[in-house]
Design goal:
Shape: globular
Radius of gyration: 12 Å
Number of helices: 3
Largest sheet: 3 strands, antiparallel
Distance between the termini: 8 Å
């Protein structure tokens, strides 16, 4: 899968990226969404932002670490996460 880069990481954009990467939204608990990757059993969480847009840095770091540890995306995608850009399928 090739990826382009979006200049700002948004909540909706990150939800779509997780879906494109094979994650299903499995639960909502208080202000947190949980996503499950069926093929690997990986679970990631994403805080629902008060403004409906902003993604917490801690969520991005946590998701990037899970993607890397489970080998779910290539190195170029991880580099984009680390630089604060959202990889999107092209």
């Amino acid at each position: 899968m090739s990826h382009a880069s979006q200049s700002e990481v948004t909540f909706v954009g990150l939800q779509q990226f997780l879906s494109d990467t094979g994650f299903d939204q499995s639960a909502t608990i208080n202000n947190v969404l949980a996503f499950h990757h069926r093929a690997t059993g990986t679970i990631v969480t994403l805080s629902i932002p008060a403004d409906g847009k902003t993604v917490r840095s801690a969520d991005l770091l946590s998701i990037a670490m899970r993607l890397e540890n489970q080998g779910l995306v290539d190195h170029s995608v991880l580099q984009q996460f680390r630089s604060g850009r959202l990889p999107v399928a092209s």
